[in-house]
Each structure stands twice: as C-alpha cells, then as structure tokens.
Amino acid sequence: NAGVTQTPKFQVLKTGQSMTLQCAQDMNHEYMSWYRQDPGMGLRLIHYSVGAGITDQGEVPNGYNVSRSTTEDFPLRLLSAAPSQTSVYFCASSYTRKSNYGYTFGSGTRLTVV
Amino acid sequence: KNEVEQSPQNLTAQEGEFITINCSYSVGISALHWLQQHPGGGIVSLFMLSSGKKKHGRLIATINIQEKHSSLHITASHPRDSAVYICAVLPTGTASKLTFGTGTRLQVTL
C-alpha cells in the first residue's frame, strides 16, 4: 500500500549510542519532515526537506541529522542519544509544503533512551 | 502562549452524542489541518481547510478565517471515534511550517 513507512516501531538506546530512524514514501512527495511528540506538547518539527538534496532545520534540530539523497527516503540520525530524546517520532510527507492534498504520516517510532 | 489552542483538552461522550472540538489560532494562516491519532497508533489526516466547511461521513470541519477559529464536529459518535484529535495550522509566509495544537482526547462510551 502506498504511504509512509517508518522503521523501527520501537527502540531502546543507551545514552551515547547512535542510531538511524528510517522513513520512506512511495508517493513521489517532494516535501518530507520529521517531528517528535512529547506528552503535553504539540508535535514539533525537527528537520524537513523540500526535495532531494535539500534539507533544513526545524524547531528542535539539536542532536539530530538528516539527509535526502533520494526523493523516497529521509532518514533521521541521532548522533549521541540522550535521555531528553526519549519521545515518539513521526515522519510525514506531502506533495509540497502547502499541498492541497494534506500530509501523510508514518506510524511512528517510540524511542527510549536510558 | 501557544499559537494553536484546542478545547476541550479531554472529552467524554456517550455513543450517539454530537461532539464539537474547537481550535483557535493567533496567526494568519494559509491552511488548517485536522488530524486523528488512535492510542498507540499513527496519525491520520482528516481534513485540510482554507475556508468554509468540509464533510466526510460523520465528520464535519468548519473554519472562520476572520475569527481565527475552526471546529471539528462528530455526529452520532461511536466508540471507534475514541482518539486524540489534533489541530495544526500552516501560517502564511514562504518559509512557514505546520504548527500543532496539543490535541483533544476524546473517549466515547457505550
């Protein structure tokens, strides 16, 4: 089925470890973005991309890196995990930032850093 | 103060009731989104509005741009409607990004 695929669904990391959260979409969407969701707060933008080879920072980019080598994939890298990065992470895509077709979200990755 | 405020934060209703969730925002916007998130689940886009009203099944979304306010209505509510409903706005401006409310948790009981 067409959509946004996120892996893994769950992950436990030790402080200082690194890992990559994968996000792939098969809808030929140009705009892709990563959010984190924390209790009592709205989703916050980490990084986003308006097309292959183009990325930019969102509201809370510190401790995270992204790349966009293809239209389909937008991985999020945690360089040195910290307990403050314990959160639920969502990847989303759309045709453009202002797409009339709305955004498609992945199923989320629940990350715990101990 | 958050740019997007939702009310109520929590809502319990009995099956069959008419439900209204409100969203107020403080900036000029080019679009407003309503999203649904089931417990432990992903996020689903319900509506995107820039004016007027949209309807899909038992769900109706309205927006008043002048008053900076939107409502999501659920008619004949059902336990499967139990979820968190999230309002998000896209402010005007070429570099703007979606700004999210904190969500309204709805529980519909039998």
Report on this structure:
The complex is a heterodimer of chains A (114) and B (110). Chain A contains no helices and eleven strands. The mean pLDDT of chain A is 94. Chain A is 0% helix and 48% strand. Chain A has 114 residues and is mainly beta. In chain A, strands 2, 4, 5, 6, 9, 10 and 11 form a seven-stranded mixed beta sheet that branches. Chain A is globular and about 40 Å long. Chain A has strands at 4-7, 10-13, 19-25, 31-37, 44-51, 54-57, 64-66, 76-78, 87-94, 104-105, 109-113. Chain B has 110 residues and is mainly beta. Chain B is built from no helices and eleven strands. Chain B has strands at 4-7, 10-14, 19-25, 29-37, 43-49, 52-56, 59-64, 69-74, 83-91, 99-100, 104-109. In chain B, strands 2, 4, 5, 9, 10 and 11 form a six-stranded mixed beta sheet that branches. The termini of chain B are far apart. Chains A and B meet through strand 5 and strand 10 of A and strand 4, strand 5, strand 9 and strand 10 of B.
